[in-house]
Amino acid sequence: xxxxxxxxxxxxxxxxxxxALANIKVKLFDVKKESLELAHNKINExxxxxxxxxxxxxxxxVMNNITFIENLEEAVSESDIIIEAVPEVLSIKEQLxxxxxxxxxxxxxxxxxTSTFSLEKLQKxxxxxxxxxxxxxxxxxxxxxxxxxVTNSMSEEDINYVRSLLEQCGKEVIILRQDxxxxxxxxxxxxxxxxxxxxxxxxxxxxxDIDKAVKYGPGLRWALNGPFEIxxxxxxxxxxxxxSNLFPDLSNRQDTPEILTEKNExxxxxxxxxxxxxxxxxxxxxxxxxxxxxxxxEILITKNK
Length: 305
Fold this sequence. Notes:
By secondary structure, the protein is of the alpha/beta class.
């Protein structure tokens, strides 16, 4: 089996690592040599954390499962499945899919990690439309188990192949049989964020206290149970009363919250600029990212006991 990942950014490199950790050979392609060099260094950092938690013994063995390639034709040659993780710019994807149409046979499955474009739009860019799907990973791709698979015309055999391959990498796979913006997880996150903005704008609670409410309340339960399981544990008679009282009062706004627009206008974009809803000017963000990764590993270890 041979897997190719196109794009060596944050998602591409961690998706490649998820296959390498499962002892599956993977080729990681990027047009920029410096992107491949950065990916190599970042993957090594991830592997050092894996060793620290004794999840792997030898990082060299895992790294040897990854081949870093600058030539597209070489990257996709003899691959069984291609996962595209290039930037979310339609012109870039269009150029790539036109090239893939020339290079790939109708036997090869192509999957996109897009979270922006519909499957229908991507199908129009690619020659073999019944061989393309979306495999939506979550950052970091080698740790977060969920992968959302969107398909509307692939055969059951191909769908089962994709599911089986992802499950070999320890992924929890959900299948969406229709296109829908945001898929499942991002729609749920967006619904929560809409209400969070509503609470801030109406001076109900501060940003800091809303984050505390999620982290130290429902967030702990969500690490163990989904919303329907939580409703079952709480009693559906109770939840019937809760939703009948709350649903009419929840935010149903359609526009972007003003505070979010303002942050973008003044280039306060979060950790990438050093300031967002919080000030990160005195935070060691490199180590903060590593600490977050370690905490994710600890949560996963606890869940899997």
